[in-house]
Each structure stands twice: as C-alpha cells, then as structure tokens.
Amino acid sequence: SYVLTQPPSESVAPGKTARITCGGNIIGTKSVHWYQQKPGQAPLLIMYYNSDRPTGIPERFSGSKSGNTATLTISRVEAGDEADYYCQVWDPSSDQDVVFGGGTKLTVL
Amino acid sequence: QVHLVQFPGAEVKKPGASVNVSCKTSGYTFINYVIIWVRQAPGQGLEWMGRISPYSGNTKYAQRVQGRVTMTTDTSTSTAYMEMRSLRSDDTAVYYCARAIQDEAFDSWGQGTLVTVSS
Prior knowledge:
The complex is a heterodimer.
Chain A: E1 9-12, E2 18-23, E3 32-37, E4 44-47, E5 61-66, E6 69-74, E7 83-90, E8 98-100, E9 104-108
Parallel strand pairs in A: 1-9
Antiparallel strand pairs in A: 2-6, 3-4, 3-7, 5-6, 7-8, 7-9
Chain B: E1 3-7, E2 10-13, E3 19-26, E4 35-40, E5 47-52, E6 59-61, E7 69-74, E8 79-84, E9 93-101, E10 105-109, E11 113-117
Parallel strand pairs in B: 2-11
Antiparallel strand pairs in B: 1-3, 3-8, 4-5, 4-9, 5-6, 7-8, 9-10, 9-11
C-alpha cells in the first residue's frame, strides 16, 4: 500500500493563513479528501475531491493539489480551527482501499 | 439528517476475547452507501479497517485485521456491525463507523466506541 506524508504539526497565529500539506506518489492520480478532528470527537469531512467543500464548511477552508502534493489552506485562522487534520486517498485497486495521512496537529498561537 | 449511532459507547475486554460494535444509521437509504470502519489508537492517527456494501454484502478488510474481523449489515434495521476476535492489547482504540460517499470520502461518522483490551 502507499503512504501519505503530513507534517506532524503546524502553528499559526489567529487571523493568519495555515497551509497543511499531504504528499505521496498516488496523489498525482487520485482525489484527496481532508478531515478535521477535535479532541474527543469523530473526524469531520471538510474537503473532498481535492477542493470541494461539504455544506456547512466555511469558505476559509480551501484545498488544492499540484503534482504529488495536496494542500489544505485555512485562511483567517480562528482559535476554533485548532485540531488534527488528516488527508485521505481512496484506491480500490490497492490491497488497502483507503489510506490516511499521519495527521497534522494545528496549533493556533 | 444523516445519523450514525454506535453501540456500545465503551467496552473493556480481556486479551483473546471478541467485541461486537453496532452502527445504527438513519436519515438516508442504507443500501445505497458503503459503510467503512476506522479505528484510532490512543494518541495515534486514523486506520482504515475495512468496508462493507449493504447492497451486495461485499466486504474488503485491511491486511492488518484480516482473519480477525467480520463486518456485516442488517438491511431491515439499517445497522452495520463489526466483530473483532482474538483481541490483543494493541487493538485498544476508538472504533468508528462512517458512511462513504461515492465509495471514497466519508461524510458522516458514528460517535465512536472505545474498546480497551487489558488483562
């Protein structure tokens, strides 16, 4: 199976822009989905098919992909954005349909 | 509104035992969406365990749990089930069910079931 690599942590000041990356060879050919997980809560889908936002997700969240790297961008960061963020790819031709990145802990300073 | 409610909320099991977790869904047509199971060990990331199609009953399991896990569904009650056998201490985790949209992204999640494996 393949590997998705995320930085373990990122820090950003309130009102600034956070960028969380997700790298992996498979990203160039597959869609990337992103989840936000706050302590004690289930993951929440915040971006799918690279750059689509589910209903209810603020426009401050955006996604992009270039080559083998996907990026989740959070503009005008708020304290409530502090969470773990996971990227995910689906590849049914693989022995494991789904792989998650290791997660990035976003700290709002 | 889509809801996935897991039962039980928590279980403590001894090594070698089995655990059954249910995931009752509502608010959508159950057979139209694949259900996946994901677990998260304490302080760790998300690990995909497998999936089941309520429509066909087809399953696919992660190699790491293959042979110890069985996923089933009951279409009459719109409920998915996950049984894990021969539990080990490293199976200690929160177990989640989730609904897959177009098979590949997971838009609704259960609240999680904490399974603690300890002698």
